[in-house]
Design brief:
Number of domains: 1
Pfam families: Glycolipid_bind
Helix content: under 10%
Number of strands: 14
Largest sheet: 14 strands, mixed
Structural class: mainly beta
Protein name: Glycolipid-binding
Mean pLDDT: 96
Shape: globular
Distance between the termini: 15 Å
Oligomer: single chain
InterPro entries: Glycolipid-bd_prot_put (IPR009467)
Length: 201
Amino acid sequence: MTRSIVWVKPQGAELAEVAFEGGSLTASGWALGGDPVPYRLEYELATVDGYVTSTLQVRVEGVDPDSGPWRRSIELVNGPDEVWTVRAKAEGHVALPPPGGDAAAVRGALDCDLGLSPLTNTMPVLRSGLLEGGGPVEFLTAWVSVPDLTVTPSRQTYTFVRRDGEHAIVNFAVPGFTEDIVFDRDGLVVDYPGIGRRTGP
């Protein structure tokens, strides 16, 4: 099964093409944003069985009004025993933190979490059966900040709240932030307040 989804965001939009096969998924996506600088982003995501991240590749680019074009990229690879590798590149100048991070800090994580993207909430929810009930369940994720592409560990908690027709509401929480996210029957985000709301079916 393949789905094509558009999310409208407070500062831009995202298109994702997601293919499900058994207990895994692959996805390609494109996003535009305007905060803290205007940027264009592309990503490719692959998981293995259990919706565990295997690779995430992200590229982002923009134009600095003073120094001209800039671009940066990152590749995350989740190897055996959840030992991650992080590869980053940067070209041009822009007032953002450098891309990349300490791979050892995210050792043991099953998931990546691409900042500002509703897509990467899908994997932990499907893996834990949270569309039907359960939780709280805590996950360690490799969080990728956008648009700078820095990588840091993030401990996140998901808890089933209720069913609403064909939708499931699941609470997402990190220290200092919590929000109820609406998922469809396939585990894809319909509405993540402040992050993105789906348009169309």
